[in-house]
Amino acid sequence: MKQPYVKGIIHSNNQISTNIYELKIEIKGIASNVYYGEPGQFYMIRGWGLDPFLSRPISICDVSSDMITFLYEIRGKGTYIISKLKKGDTLELLGPLGNGFNMNLEGNIAIISGGIGIAPMIYLTKKLDANIDFYCGFRNEVYYVEKIKNHVNNVFISTEDGSIGHKGFVTELFIPERYDLVLTCGPIPMMRRVVEICKEKVSVYISMESRMACGVGACLGCTIETISGMKRVCKEGPVFLGEEVVFHD
Amino acid sequence: MINTKVNLCGVELKNPVIAASGTFGFGREYGEYFPLSKLGGICTKGLTLNKKDGNQGIRIYEVTGGLLNSIGLQNPGIDSFIEEELPFMEKQDTVILANVGGSTIDEYIKSIEKLNETNIDIIELNISCPNVKQGGMAFGIKSEIAYKVVSEVKDVCKKPLIVKLSPNAENIVQMAESCKKAGADGLSLVNTFSGMAIDINTRKPVFKNTIAGLSGPCIKPIALRMVYEVSKAVDIPIIGIGGILDYKDAIEFIMAGAHAIQVGSGNFIKPDICLDIIHGIEKFMEDEEIKSIEEIRGIIGRDIIC
After folding, report:
1. Residues A133 and A195 in one domain
2. Most buried one in A70, B57, B161, B189, CB count within 10 A?
3. Smallest Cα–Cα separation from A128: which of A154, A147, A109?
């Protein structure tokens, strides 16, 4: 049997950019050889009673022997409450959930993130044994790139206001022909653009985001359309082959 | 010794706690977190004769004290259910309620004829889904229309027939009486309330269908009142549904007149919440020296008709 929500103790919860926080959690009462999950998987997190009603799906940013790191952006009430928690406070976690990135990858890989889509990339780049170029786009403030740059060959940065790196979108920097595979996480319009650019050139895996209720595949609230039918972001995803996803306007 | 068993339309349940339709799939996912055999029963995701992909756009929207959903009866269809999901459910040693939706009487009848030939225990007729155009809710608003659907379905149905009522019915008591007259063996109430939300930035409804279904603890007092009123008006078994999150909520519904209860949105906040509720009911019965559920069922206003 899988364990329902387990208690986690906050080790640190630091703001690293406007509305962006890095949260480190120790999971109480679990042996150190526990399986914390793969890059691209996520946890349902709650740190309150019944308001907000639902838990918040947050992807794994990094793991160590006794700690899970999450990187999150304040989007609403749930993430706002989490941002106010301090060292020693507790949270409840359900996971790891979903299917992450395929780890049996070789060759030249491009990883493309947009905004908070950078969250799963540190763990991913640490675990992948490949030549990685990292493309990351931000609105204006750049964060977390320092932690990732040692695990990749090249880093390309863009900001929408041009304050750091290329002015514009990160997709404008990227040349698909150079790569054997592309992995991306970020806003849906960005990932859709990545899939378009890569079409018939290179395969893309995308990490989808969707509103979730149960997080375990029962409620069908997070379902997206794919060429092989409706798929649950929380269960079959969140990582999908880009060409399979049907994007809607 | 306490006894949590309940008799629901001739079917014995280990305890009164049933996982509600649409929140529990076919049990596979939650079965990874606790043994499904602990449950009184499982009500399947709403089934239609043919496979349905459900609605596009946002399907879930959180509100204070619950959530709005617009899933749109996404399901594999009756045949796939029987072939691929039912064998799994049959192994779980719990009562199986098949929730059946439809957009025409003919569709309901065809689905039920197929389910008649299976080992499912009870049919829960969904005449109340708010999220599908002609998705059953039209049948669940007016008592005369519900009467027609239920009586035609009853003619072919070989299983105990429980009709799931919409709280959006014009008059819930009249609706219950019509369903009983049409041959319903039991009633379950309530389905979700019609609700909506607006994105003020885009100036558009959050949901493509504009209207969605509201569930969660925010609906509990209204659902409880409806169960209370209906249980005083009809003498067939009732399953109480609406924002049940703990044993206290469950006991309230039982005291209002419910034979059993269903847990829906609660599953989303804790995968094994049904277990907590079952244990809570047991403990309450022990502490209060209640020997059977029947002792407390419908004890509120037994002689008063409001």
Report:
1. yes
2. B189
3. A109
CATH number at residue A40: 2.40.30.10
Examine the domain organization and report whether A117 and A189 are in the same domain: yes
CB distance B177 to B170 below 8 Å: no
- Using the beta-carbon criterion (under 8 Å), do A220 and B270 form an inter-chain contact? no
Residue of B nearest to A248 (CA): B57
| Two structure tokens written together for A160 | 């929408």
Among left, alpha and beta (phi > 0; psi -120 to 50; other), residue A168 is: left
Contacts of A218 in chain B (CB under 8 A): 23-25, 29-30, 267
Would residue A131 count as lying in a domain? Answer: yes
Please judge whether A53 and B66 are an interchain contact, meaning their C-beta atoms are less than 8 angstroms apart: yes
Instruction: Beginning with the edge strand found earlier in the chain, give each strand of the sheet holding A108-114 in spatial order.
Output: A166-167, A154-159, A131-138, A108-114, A181-185, A203-207, A239-241
DSSP one-letter code for B181: H
φ/ψ of residue A186, rounded to 5:
170, -165
What is the residue range of A153's domain?
Answer: 108-207
Nearest chain B CA: its distance from A78 CA (Å):
11
> Can you tell me which residue has the tokens 């009249």?
B174
Neighbouring C-alpha atoms within 13 Å toward the C-beta of A125: 28
Rounded distance between C-alpha atoms, residue A124 and residue A233, angstroms: 19
Is there a single domain that holds both residue A31 and residue A117? no
Return the beta strands (E) in B146-185 as ranges: 161-164
Residue A246 lies in a domain: no
ipTM, 2 dp: 0.93
A52 Cβ under 8 Å from any chain B Cβ: yes
Q: Is B260 exposed, middle or buried (0-12, 13-18, 19+ CB in 10 A)?
A: buried
Q: Residues A84, A116: one domain?
A: no
